[in-house]
Amino acid sequence: MGARQSRAGCKDKGPGRMGCLRRRQKLSAWDDALLSGRDPRALLKRGLRHISFSLVTKGMTDVPDFLWGLSEVQRLNLSHNQLRVLPPEVGRLSRLVVLNLCGNHLKSLPAELSLLQGLKVLFLSMNRLSELPAELGACRSLEVLSVSHNRLSQLPAGFADLSRLRKLNLSNNCFAHIPACVFALKELDFLHVGSNRLENIAESIQCLGSLQIFIAENNSIHSFPRSLCLLASLEMLNLNDNDIQTLPEELYLLCRLERIAWNPMDKGLHISHNPLAKPLPELVEGGLDMLVSYLKDKKHS
Fold it and tell me: Cα–Cα distance between 80 and 247 in angstroms, integer?
């Protein structure tokens, strides 16, 4: 009788039902807010500079509809869920500065991203994207973009309009060459194209005069282009795990490369695991000064 009364009590409407629900299952933060009649805005975090909202690792397959009414959100983190679609309503969040969608199942993005005119940081890594919408080029305030670990083999031409972009991660995709539109991004100081299908680096790389970090490891690049030596701002150049046999005599022009680097996080020249022709392997072991001296002597001999 007592068990039947307990079950019946759970069927009753009102606060008692809420208590049973809480005992029976763990509610997500937003479900808890909605069932208790609270305004979802109570879940917003108000920092000194930004108003943030985070639904990380919630197992969501869909974005809750109430989110599109939180127009004041500036930083939105929906990473590491199971989202398959980003609804076009994302365009309503016109104050967004940072949008993190990493680690979902997204295969495409809505054109309404173009409405996010204040967006500066966009993380799309670890999804299933095979293309980016042409409208992304309208996000002219974008400064940081990561699309690593997707299925991309090309970028839309309008990508060249992202004139403020400073950091771009295209690693772990299917690029056979660096898209030409990338060379129009004059403010880039970080470019990661590692773990793709690159066989060469276009001479146009010299257009990226602000580049400080260039990572192209784990490709099939056959030669070290002389045009790379014109990027005087380079502080890290990572060409590990490629098919490079020779190094250009103009390597000495890269005056900000201070050493041969072995730790992946260190600045300097990373050139290990390449079939360098002799005597280059021994010179690399001796350090950057020895390598540069040899190349200079070779040039003038």
Answer: 42
| β-pair type (51-54, 45-46) | antiparallel
159 burial via Cβ count (<10 Å: 0-12, 13-18, 19+) = buried
- Indicate the burial class of 287 (C-beta count within 10 angstroms; 0-12, 13-18, 19 or more): exposed
Which class for 93: exposed (0-12), middle (13-18), buried (19 or more C-beta within 10 A)? buried
Gap between the terminal Cα atoms of the chain: 101
Instruction: Give the other-Cβ count within 10 Å of 8's Cβ.
Output: 9
Beta bridge partners of 48: none
- pLDDT tens, 69-124? 999 999 999 999 999 999 999 999 999 999 999 999 999 999 999 999 999 999 99
What are the C-alpha distances in Å from 139 to residues 56, 145, 178, 195? Answer: 24, 11, 21, 27
What pLDDT is attached to residue 107? 97
Q: Please state, in angstroms and rounded to a whole number, the distance separating the CA atoms of residues 203 and 227.
A: 6
Which among 245, 209, 258 is positioned nearest to 230, based on CA atoms?
209
Asked whether 109 and 86 are in contact (CB, 8 A), the reply is yes
Query: For residues 143 and 154, what is the distance between their CA atoms, to the nearest angstrom?
Result: 20
Residue 211 class from Cβ within 10 Å (0-12 exposed, 13-18 middle, 19+ buried)?
buried
The pair of structure tokens assigned to 32 is 């808890």
What is the C-alpha to C-alpha distance for residues 43 and 30, in angstroms, rounded to an integer?
8
User: Within 13 Å and on the Cβ side, how many CA atoms surround 220?
Assistant: 8
Residue with tokens 């400064």: 143
Cβ within 8 Å of residue 92, ≥6 positions away:
68, 69, 71, 115
Question: What are φ and ψ of residue 144, in 5° steps?
Answer: -135, 130
103: region left, alpha or beta (phi > 0 left; psi from -120 to 50 alpha): left
> CA-CA distance, 247 to 229, in Å (whole number)?
10
| CA distance linking residue 248 with residue 291, whole number of Å | 11
